[in-house]
Every structure is written in structure tokens, then in C-alpha cells.
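Lecture notes, unit on protein representations.

Consider one protein chain, 614 amino acids long.
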Amino acid sequence: MDFIILKSAAWLYSSCPSSSRPRRYVLGAVLSMLLAHGATAAVTGLPASLPGLTEVSDARWNATAVRKVLRTFAFGGHATDAQIDAWAAMKPQRAIVQMLTFDEHNLLLSPPDNSLRKEAMRSRSQTLHALGDMWGLNNAANMLEPEDREDYLRSSWHGAMLTWSLAARVRGGNPFRHRIGYWETNFHLAVSHARGVSNYQLVSYYDDVMASLQRGDSYDAVIATASLSAAIGHHYGHRDNRYYANECYCNEDFAREFHQLGFGILGVGDQLYHERITIKNTAAALTGMYFVSREAPSEWEAEKVVFGSDGHVPSAVRILHRSIAGANASEKIRALARVDIRYKESLDNLPVMIVQSIADDNISFKEARALREAWASMPSKDLLRFLRAYAISTTFHSSQRVKQFTSLERHMVIANRFADTNREQYHDVPEIWRLYWEEEVIPFEPWHEVFGHQNGPEAAASAELFRKNYKRATEASFSYSVEDFNGASRAKDWRLLMPRGEAYTVGAGAEWLWQRFIADGLKNFGPLERAHLYALLAYGRDLAAVLHPRFPDTAVTLAELNAPAGKAWLAKVSAARLPLDSKDADIRERTNDRMGAALDFIIATPFMLAEEGR
């Protein structure tokens, strides 16, 4: 669905009777201000620019540009306003190497929660294996409620899913790392728990791929590591491939997808050879593997793969018109990956596949040409360098770019920009459960199995998902007065996050909230959006009820707000004080309650469902 159509559809709620939307909102848990600190992540030393991708100018590299990068590549991230401003003041190339790294920790992007020092997230291993062990067992560092802990174990049904979901949201880690990890394992070479891939295999698969990226391996080596995993072998069924007496007893499914999904090679122009030679011989190369358990309770769930010569094709095989040699499947597949990454179809298709899935639904011919030039310019294909160069390019910061959010992207951005303490994430204050059980988007259980999870256009075209998002907002999910954390009552206090600015005025508060969650430089924050937020922040009531108290079902129009009386009202309310720091506890609670109501409104708008360029 086109973004403009989405925008128009969303504003139908403006004409709904106020009685159909809640009048009262309730407030929740505390946010503590986290100052940006910690060491900068190591960088490759290579420039963060590439031929073909024109670097955005210093003038266009501002706080909004930084927020857009974080919204697209890090589920919004956890960086403070001060850190975002610091990155905006840097040269783009310098800033991006701090913002996007594959290290387990990026303490500028995700400052640790110092109120929970026992968990020591800033120094704790961020692999799914290590985090699952911490959150799944009883220990002093585990802040999860005792009754929830066993759900994070690899032996539980959703252990891998829950561990990844929390890892991508807690402070002290690296949300960019987990955003790319999700794409690699749920889209690029997707595997599915629903098809019998065990949690042990899922965790090993994810951690091995991310370790390869963190080491800075060439991208062909990363794809080879994924291809040789127990998760892939189990999902596609080639774990039992054997070659005996010049006969291949082989499943060819992954032999095809290794080239197609892994590298974008479909055999165009040489289809007969591709089907009869390349795919069949790739299946022969994928022979002689045996599964061995490290921790899994059975060989069927085993997470380690041993590559032997017994049952493996002993000679070199001809694939893509090249002779691929090796003593076992691992050697042959790694050699084959080095051929695939340089194959013309791969050079044309892979960089476009990456960007289209992560950041831009509709790539023009000109943009595709720029991405191909950038990718081809790297002798060794470096995914991190490519993403950094793209993230600071005019191609990314283009008004033509639109990325329609998947349900998961939307939920994760909301959760990361709302909850500023790990305790809020542990107690699921952002209600991530709605993603899993209401919208039925579960990590590691992709909708299309081998072809990946729900994509942005699918989410945008679904009237049912639009309805569920709207229903969530009108249920006042982010407006509550008290939330109980293990017997401790905590109240939301937005002043710990919001810059004092103009003594907490309604106008400044509304703009700050909008930019924090929508990150559009206020481009779409017009008179109608402002009026709705001003009414909620200043009066705690719907706009129609404020402007037409005798007829609260009246639809307020843009023409009304652009009239002299409407403009005067907007100016007056914008300058009104937002008493977040009142000495009266009841007034503070009521004001924080209204902040939550304003956030509920923002989440109901179409701008929470997509990411635009500039």
C-alpha cells in the first residue's frame, strides 16, 4: 500500500465520535535518564563511504538524519538526546562508525541501565547462548520474575525467540547487531522453529553468524557459515545427504536456495545448466555431514555439525562453470561461496536484496545502480562497510525512500523509544506480547518459511493489522498511573527524559515526543497533528471535546485550524506550561498521564507504520 494512501486511511479516526475513543488514560513505570557513556566500538579502519553512494552533506546530516538511521537500522536504539546531537555535530563518516558496529556492546547506542548493576549488562556476553543462560536460570543478576525464567531456556518451546526479543531491547547491548541478526536468520537465510529446527540449533545458528560478522569476515564467509549450520541442515533436510558409488542420495532444496536466497543467483540466461548441473552438484557438495550434540538432549536437536569424508562426493564438482574442490562439505561450500559472491548475478542482485529488505521497499533503477557500484567496489565484500556507506548516503536520505515497517519493526521501535530502564522491558511494560499473540509475528517462525518473515508491504496492506494497531492505541496502552514491579510501585516520570527546554511547554513537549517516535524532523507534524497532541497534553481530552465541548462528536478540520481563531488557539496552547515538575504530586501524575495519552495518539498515526527518507 502506498504510504500516502496509508496516511489518508489512518486519519479516519479524526472523524470518529469522541465517545469511541477513551477519555481517560492511566500511567505506568519509571524511566531514568541514561547518559551516553562507554568506549566507542572498534572500527575496521576503512572509510565509511563507497563509490556510487554520495555522502550526505554536513547540512543535511543533523539530528533527524541520525534518528532516521537509528530507526531503520537499530529499532530506534537507546541513545540519549545528547548523544544524538553529538553524532549530528560530527562528520557523517565519523558518526556512523560509532553508531553502527557488530560488537556485542555499543554503549553509545545503548547506554547500560545503571540502576540494575547486578546484571552488569555492559560487560556480559550478548550472545543468545549466554543471555539465555542468564535469563533462564535463578541467579542474582536475573531481573526477570521467577515464574518467567524457564521460558528463556533452550529446552523451552520459545526459548530462542524470547531471548532474542529481550536482547534486542535491553540496554547495555547493541540493538543494531540484533536488528541485522534478525534479518540474517529470519529473512536472508531463514529457518523456522515451526519446521522442527530446535532452539539449540537456532541459538547456535544466530550466534555463529553474528560472531562471523563481528570478526569482520568477508560476506561470502558469513553466508557459508550460515549455510553450514545445523539449523539450515535440519530446516532444508540435507543433513542426511549421502554420496555413494557415483550416486547422490540428496535433497536438492538448499542446493537451490544457497544460490538464490544466499546470493541472488537464479541462473538467468543459463537455466538448463543451472538446474541440471549447478543445483545437482551443489547438492552433491552438501554431503557427508553428521550432527553431534553439545547440549541438546538428542541427535535430532543437535546443534553441532561434523563434516566427514564418508558419504561425501570424493572428487571436485562443477558448479557455475567452475571446479569446486574440497575434502568435505565445509571446504567445498566455503570455496563455492567465494565463487558465488563474485558471480555477475550476485553482484547485480545481492546488494539490492539487502537494502530492499532492510531499508527501502521500492528501489529505483538509479538507486540500484548506485548500490551495485558500491558493492562491486569492495574487493572483499564487507556488509558493515556497505551498510554504513548506505546509511550516510543521499540514497538513504532521499525523499523517494519509503520503508513500510513490519509488525516486529514497529513494536520494537516503540518499545526501545518508550522504555528507558531494563526493568520495564523485563516486565513487558511496552506489551511486546501483542506482537506475538495478537499480530502473530514470532521471531524464528517466518510466515513464508524459506522466503522469510512478514514484510513491510504485507503489514501495510493488512486492514486487520491496521485495526489492531489502532485498537492498541485507543486502549491507552502507554497511559497508566502505576505499574507494580515485584511489589514496588513505579510511576512514569517523563521529565527524566524530556529536555527542560522552554520550561516544559506544551508545544515543546509535543514536538519532542513526535520526534522521539516518528523522527521526521516534524515534516508531518502539521496543524492537525499538533492540535490533537496539544489538546491531550493541555486538557487531557480529545480535540473535538476541547474545541466543541457542546458537540464533542464534531470532526475538527484542517480548515478550522488554519482559520484565525484556530491559529490563535494553537499559539496560545503551545505556549502553555506543561507542569511535569510541579510540586503537587497529583498534578505531576496527571501531566505524565497526559504524556502517555499523547504517545497513544502518535502510535495510532500512519507515521508509526513506515519510515520515510527526506
